[in-house]
């Protein structure tokens, strides 16, 4: 049963990351390191629709705790700790962009990204705990 939980957590996180990459490729002019330029379809002059601006932050904050929990023992506390740890990491990086420290080329501070981190980690906790609970029966 523990293997099924881990695979479910990992697949859920991986699908979320793939969806985030699609959003970047279609709507974000910023280039993703290690992804070929030919896969970046966004027009640098158009910019992303406002509603999609925080999607990468939501997706990252959602996927990383699930992927982390998939690598650890199948325990509920690992879901919660992964959400807290990745939430802190994402908030620190976002606030670092506000102070002018650039962790990534072209990174900009957006308060909606902070909300996206909160939403993503909350969803990760709910989904992760549901996966743990649903497969323990």
The assembly state of the depicted protein chains is single chain
**What integer is the average pLDDT?**
84
SSE order, as H and E?
HHHH
What is the share of helical residues? 55-70%
Gross morphology: globular
Number of distinct beta strands: 0
Radius of gyration: 16 Å
Number of helices: 4
Portion in strands: under 5%
Distance between the termini: 10 Å
Structural class estimated from helices and strands: mainly alpha
Outline the structure in words.
This protein is mostly helical and 137 residues long. Helix content is 66%, strand content 0%. It has four helices and no strands.
Topology:
Elements: H1 2-27, H2 55-71, H3 76-98, H4 111-134
Question: What key attributes describe this structure?
Answer:
66% helix, 137 residues, mainly alpha, 0% strand, 4 helices
Write a compact overview of the structure shown:
66% of the residues lie in helices and 0% in strands. With 137 residues, it is an all-alpha fold.
């Amino acid at each position: 049963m523990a293997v099924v939980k881990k695979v479910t957590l990992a697949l859920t996180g991986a699908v979320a990351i793939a969806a985030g990459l699609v959003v970047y490729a279609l709507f974000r002019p910023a280039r993703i390191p290690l992804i070929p330029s030919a896969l970046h379809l966004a027009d640098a002059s158009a910019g992303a629709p406002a509603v999609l601006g925080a999607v990468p932050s939501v997706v990252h904050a959602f996927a990383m705790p699930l992927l982390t929990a998939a690598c650890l023992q199948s325990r509920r506390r690992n879901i919660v700790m992964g959400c807290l740890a990745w939430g802190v990491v994402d908030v620190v990086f976002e606030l670092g962009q506000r102070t002018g420290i650039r962790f990534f080329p072209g990174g900009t501070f957006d308060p909606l990204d902070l909300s996206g981190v909160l939403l993503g980690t909350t969803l990760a906790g709910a989904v992760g705990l549901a996966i743990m609970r649903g497969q323990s029966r």
